[in-house]
Specification:
251 residues, Rossmann fold, 10 helices, alpha/beta
Length: 251
């Protein structure tokens, strides 16, 4: 599980890390530091290609993805889970072959969509390291195709992760297809910009149904989570609970 990445050197976690390690930022100016690193310039290029532009460099933290991750982790014995948070929710860990041993792989972060070039769609992981230095954090669809990820379920808990481009003779090209090509039997994705708090709660209920005493199927777990969420007045609007769909094998 990868959640709550660090997107900016202004993030409080960078300051905390520097203080903990008793180091200080370089005297080099921020502008020249960016110019001298591969990652941020590469990210800017990828962002432009993806149609995101400067938006990709000013993404806000999704604090409730941490609550989401902790709630899920509490349902799984420590020996059977791998939880990558903060700086560890990075591209290296997302593409590590170790993920292939897990039944369920969960990403809780921003998603980005390029409807013109769906191979450039993807998810965003940590864009800086503990020292505030830039790093490549875009995991794009064409890179996912190259992974070996025979998971029973991949969950993309972010915005618009289920969208793509409908190509005649090929079908819908996007993240769902990419993860299935990588070996995933099912992929849980979203159809629109989802609410952070509502999504954290929906995912908590989904995993309680899936991993708790009832041990429902993924499809039944999602349905039960959506029904119970919709029953609450604050979450009754379909916007809060209907955005996620399960694609792949129904069982």
């Amino acid at each position: 599980m990868l959640a709550d990445p660090v997107f900016s050197e202004d993030d409080q976690r960078v300051t905390t890390s520097l203080t903990r390690n008793k180091t200080s930022p370089s005297n080099t100016t921020l502008a020249s530091r960016r110019a001298n690193t591969f990652s941020r310039s590469e990210i800017q290029r990828l962002a432009n290609e993806s149609g995101w532009g400067d938006e990709a460099l000013s993404m806000g933290r999704l604090p409730l993805t941490r609550r989401e991750a902790d709630a899920i982790a509490a349902l799984v014995p420590a020996a059977y889970r791998k939880q990558e948070l903060d700086f560890a929710a990075n591209l290296s860990n997302a593409t590590n072959s170790d993920l292939s041993q897990y039944r369920i792989v969960h990403f809780a972060t921003h998603g980005f969509l390029n409807s013109r070039h769906p191979e450039l769609s993807g998810i965003v992981l940590s864009l800086v390291d503990e020292k505030g230095q830039d790093r490549n954090g875009f995991l794009r669809a064409h890179e996912i195709y190259e992974l070996k990820l025979p998971a029973e379920l991949v969950v993309l808990s972010g915005c618009r992760t289920g969208l793509g481009k409908d190509i005649r003779g090929e079908g819908l090209i996007g993240l769902t297809r990419a993860f299935m090509h990588a070996g995933a039997a099912r992929v849980l994705v979203s159809l629109w910009d989802v609410n952070d708090e509502a999504t954290a709660e929906l995912m908590r209920r989904f995993y309680v149904n899936l991993l708790g005493p009832q041990k429902l199927s993924p499809a039944a777990s999602l349905r039960a989570a959506q029904v119970s969420t919709a029953a609450e007045k604050r979450w009754s609007a379909p916007y809060y609970w209907a955005g996620f769909i399960l694609q792949g094998e129904p069982r």
